[in-house]
Amino acid sequence: MGHAHYLVAQRGTGWFILLEKKRYGPFLSGRNGALTAAVQAAHQAGKDGHDARVSLRAVDGIARTVWCFGVDGYPPCWVEPLRIVAPKPRPKRPRPAALARIIHRS
């Protein structure tokens, strides 16, 4: 199959993923968020049979490969600390009955 090469790069103040002349982002969680999303997408592309890899464009302009499907483990060891820092989802709370009635009238 084809190639799925994801390039994570900074444009201005935001971090983006570049893939096949398309730009995705900016990622609110910055470089780490863009890298994590790129690895997740590359992992799926690799499972679909593509030559999948993620590169990071450094300050000097050179892109270096940081993750390859079939070579590096998934998830990469550097992703786990990001999960620990990420905020946990808020638990769902039941709505008060009065609020539920207002919503249903609208």
* Form type: globular
Note the main sheet.
Answer: 5 strands, mixed
What would you call the structural class? alpha+beta
State the domain count. Answer: 1
Fold topology:
Blueprint: E1 3-11, E2 14-19, E3 22-24, H1 30-47, E4 51-57, E5 63-68, H2 80-85, H3 97-105
Parallel strand pairs: 1-4
Antiparallel strand pairs: 1-2, 2-3, 4-5
Characterization of this structure:
This protein is of the alpha+beta class and 106 residues long. It has one domain (3-105). The protein contains three helices and five strands; from the N terminus they run E-E-E-H-E-E-H-H. The protein has helices at residues 30-47, 80-85, 97-105, and strands at 3-11, 14-19, 22-24, 51-57, 63-68. Strands 3-2-1-4-5 form a five-stranded mixed beta sheet, covered by helices on one side. A hairpin with a 2-residue loop joins strand 1 (3-11) and strand 2. The chain is globular, with a radius of gyration of 19 Å. 21% of the residues are buried.
Quick structural overview:
With about 110 residues, the chain is of the alpha+beta class.
Question: Characteristics of this structure?
Answer:
single chain; 106 residues; alpha+beta; 5-stranded mixed beta sheet; 3 helices; 29% strand
